[in-house]
């Protein structure tokens, strides 16, 4: 009788052990993490793409500098569009444009001013922000208010490029409805170019999307450890075919990082306010 009881006890223990083994997989279920399975504070692949460009351009050292200035000669369809000097804080919070026609544009962090007051204000706000943004875009890709979407990589002229789409939140800048399709050089990680639309002035995104353009960056130079493109070319562009006919170009020179004084961005005496 004792042997039967002992045998029953052993069988019962084995049975319980088997049941525990059967239940184990339920405890090993891999939980789906937020943000498409990334979680733990990690960024999405689309944002990682943007960060990769910033890192390739050494954003950390860029941000250590207070200000940067450069000379620019810009033409479209063979006609001079801008010739002068652009100065800005590296966080883009203040900007100054000194044109060779003796006019100045100042963004003091709040308002845009044109000097002298009787100067033609046509395109003033556009010139104030656009060219400085094209220069600093490799360092602003993850600014607050930026949104990213991954696109399929492409091959152009025998080279592979990774691609992402940049949009903006409401009330970001003068033209929050603008968007950019960003191309990254796979070998170097540097910014190759961008397709973009311009809604400034009209605010009509649908109309702007009928006539998108592109910018290609080239002739990179390393200034204070920071890669900066000294040549820009502007093109007709579409997502399917990429960069098409060349319509403009810019040459940048005398790129200098320095510790700018606040008075450099103060409102000039003989100036007028340029509203949106």
UniProtKB/TrEMBL annotation:
PROSITE patterns linked to this entry: PROKAR_LIPOPROTEIN
- Source domain of life: Bacteria
Which protein are we looking at?
A: Uncharacterized protein
Q: Which organism is it from?
A: Gillisia mitskevichiae
């Amino acid at each position: 009788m004792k042997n039967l009881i002992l045998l029953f006890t052993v069988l019962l223990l084995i049975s319980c052990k088997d049941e525990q083994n059967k239940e184990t997989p339920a405890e090993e279920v891999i939980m789906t993490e937020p943000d498409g399975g990334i979680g733990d504070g990690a960024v999405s692949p689309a944002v990682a793409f943007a960060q990769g460009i910033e890192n390739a351009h050494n954003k950390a050292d860029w941000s250590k500098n207070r200000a940067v200035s450069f000379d620019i000669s810009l033409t479209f369809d063979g006609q001079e569009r801008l010739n002068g000097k652009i100065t800005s804080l590296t966080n883009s919070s203040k900007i100054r444009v000194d044109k060779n026609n003796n006019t100045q544009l100042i963004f003091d962090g709040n308002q845009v001013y044109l000097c002298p007051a009787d100067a033609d204000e046509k395109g003033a706000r556009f010139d104030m922000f656009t060219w400085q943004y094209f220069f600093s875009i490799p360092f602003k890709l993850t600014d607050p208010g930026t949104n990213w979407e991954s696109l399929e990589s492409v091959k152009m002229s025998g080279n592979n490029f990774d691609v992402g789409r940049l949009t903006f939140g409401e009330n970001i800048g003068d033209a929050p409805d603008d968007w950019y399709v960003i191309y990254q050089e796979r070998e170097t990680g540097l910014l190759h170019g961008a397709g973009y639309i311009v809604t400034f002035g009209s605010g009509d995104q649908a109309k702007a999307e009928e006539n998108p353009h592109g910018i290609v960056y080239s002739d990179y130079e390393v200034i204070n450890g920071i890669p900066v493109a000294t040549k820009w070319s502007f093109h007709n562009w579409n997502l399917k075919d990429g960069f098409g006919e060349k319509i403009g170009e810019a040459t940048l020179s005398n790129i200098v990082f320095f510790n700018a004084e606040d008075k450099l961005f103060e409102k000039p005496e003989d100036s007028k306010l340029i509203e949106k």
